[in-house]
Design brief:
single chain; 321 residues; alpha/beta; eight-stranded mixed sheet; two-stranded parallel sheet; 10 strands; 19% strand; globular
Length: 321
């Protein structure tokens, strides 16, 4: 028993020493950041900003690897199963908060991941086609109450923030509108702009050009406060649904077991990066705002999102598979 105890103690000491050495030399080789979505989307843009910033501050390449599919869960699973050395990371989006309730099974568990930092949030804006006879969100709710089930709203796929935002409006306002899911924002835009599906929540940066052209009318934004991109558009909460908040968000995760000093370093670098003026300016163009905070805050934030949307998804009977 004594020999076993001494061996166990020696293993622990050796492991701690190795972790300390790794942290001191990290990164000594290129780091891969897996993005669970195709190039060009908001998650990809945010991920590339983080990769570029970390490469500049830490002096090694941070290479983006796009592995799209299943609302980002395929990419997340790659990282969850990677060696916990800090050389395989992922930037996840708010779909990470909905996936556990949306899918009957996932190729990873939350305990397989180590939160490293919160990056940013992005609001959504509820837009309607100009043919909809409503100039305010309150007028829209009155219209929906007068004609339950008559009007439809679009989303880029089931379980996304666009979809769940609509479901939350239905629950909080006691209105009925029909969900029409698509396979991506690019696919749904022609129908939205033509009025075939006349309303939806969508990323504010994506919708702003169409709003400025007069092709779509903004009624409310989904964040708790107004967005600088559309300062005259009230929030949903201001418009009668107090407490309403739906945000896109992005976080940096590593495999569970990544040495704490490496997590601490990544967290510090992310917190410094997201307040740099050049990054804040890029965020502003996306309608995004820096988040930041400790790894513990990141874990609590993700847990709260999963609990909040898990209830909405289960109560609404939404499934992605």
């Amino acid at each position: 028993m004594l020999n076993f105890t001494l061996r166990s103690f020696a293993i622990i000491v050796t492991s701690l020493a190795a972790a300390g050495t790794l942290a001191q030399s990290y990164p000594s080789q290129p780091v891969r950041i897996v993005i669970g979505f195709p190039p060009g989307g908001t998650t990809d843009v945010i991920g590339r900003l983080v990769a570029q910033g970390l490469a500049e501050s830490l002096g090694k390449s941070f290479i983006v690897d796009n592995r799209g599919g299943a609302s980002g869960t395929i990419g997340t699973a790659i990282v969850a199963k990677a060696e916990p050395t800090g050389y395989t990371l992922t930037v996840v989006s708010s779909t990470h908060g909905t996936a556990p309730a949306l899918y009957s099974s996932l190729p990873y568990q939350e305990k397989d991941l180590a939160p490293a930092g919160l990056i940013a949030t992005t609001p959504y804006v509820f837009v309607v086609h100009p043919t909809i006879p409503a100039n305010t969100f309150q007028e829209l709710l009155a219209l929906l109450r007068q004609s339950p089930g008559k009007y439809s709203f679009a989303s880029s796929s089931p379980g996304t923030a666009q979809h769940l935002g609509g479901e939350l409006v239905k629950r909080m306002a006691s209105v009925d509108m029909v969900h029409v899911p698509y396979k991506g924002t690019g696919v749904l835009l022609p129908d939205l702009l033509s009025g075939r599906v006349p309303m939806m929540f969508e990323n504010v940066a994506i919708m702003t050009p169409h709003i400025r052209k007069g092709s779509l009318r903004p009624l409310a934004v989904s964040s708790a406060k107004r967005t600088p991109l559309l300062p005259d558009v009230p929030t949903v909460a201001e418009s009668g649904l107090g407490g309403f908040e739906v945000l896109g968000w992005f976080a940096l995760l590593a495999p569970a077991g990544t040495p704490p000093p490496v997590i601490k370093m990544l967290n510090a670098e992310v917190n410094k990066l997201i307040v740099k003026p050049s990054v804040v300016e890029r965020f502003a163009a996306l309608g995004a705002e820096p988040l930041g905070g400790t790894p513990e805050r990141t874990a609590a934030f993700i847990r709260n999102e999963q609990e909040k949307w898990g209830k909405v998804i289960r109560d609404s009977g939404i499934k992605a598979d």
